Amino acid sequence: MNKTSGKIALGIVSLLLGLMLTYQLRAVAKNKKITGNNDVATITIEVEKLTKQKADMQKQIDELQIQIQNYEKAVSEDTLSKALVQELDSTRMLLGSTDVQGEGIILTIEAEEDIFSAQSPQYGVDYGDLVRIVNELNYADAEAISINDIRITSRTGIRLAGNAIIINEEKISPVETVTIKAIGNKNKLSKALEFPGILDTGFTGFTTKLTPSDKVEISKYNVTLNFMYAKPINNN
Predict the structure, then answer these.
(1) How high is the pLDDT of residue 3?
(2) In its keyword annotation, does this UniProt entry include Coiled coil (predicted)?
(3) How many Cα atoms are found within 13 Å in the side-chain-facing hemisphere of 229?
């Protein structure tokens, strides 16, 4: 009797456990289904949101492109804007802050083969001659000048320091080849340097070669010019 009762009790407990397990499995499946549906819904919402954002951004891009086109059109049609741009470019070239090219001349001052002989140790390019050449080129309306690729500006100084010539705080050797470039009317620049007393004196031990050219390239001056004391006058 007791044995039979135990079996019945065990069966009831097993049935209850089975029912509980089945209920839990169904609940898990139901939760997964709900979660899956929620994930799909969330993704759908995000896609719609991103699509709307993309459309809004594209609209903004289109508006900005129209504005840029209007600005470009205004600049191209506005004479004053053109004049300002041209003046800015001219100022940059005058200050030497941009690379330039154009017709002009190239002057090469090169040591003769026997310059380093014992009989002529004192020979070398004099810094005063370089100053004189730069002055003549400026008088001939040179628009840009360089010496050994050192840009000459309105604040350039040329002086002697020991055994070197200093130009814009850069050293060049007075006994090595010196190359001077100038951009401007090549015929006018050539005539200025061919004037008696410019290249035919002061270059003992050196040969000078003057070459007109349709394309001379001069690099910019890489140092920013700062004004600490000079200020524009306000006439208002």
Answers:
(1) 47
(2) yes
(3) 0
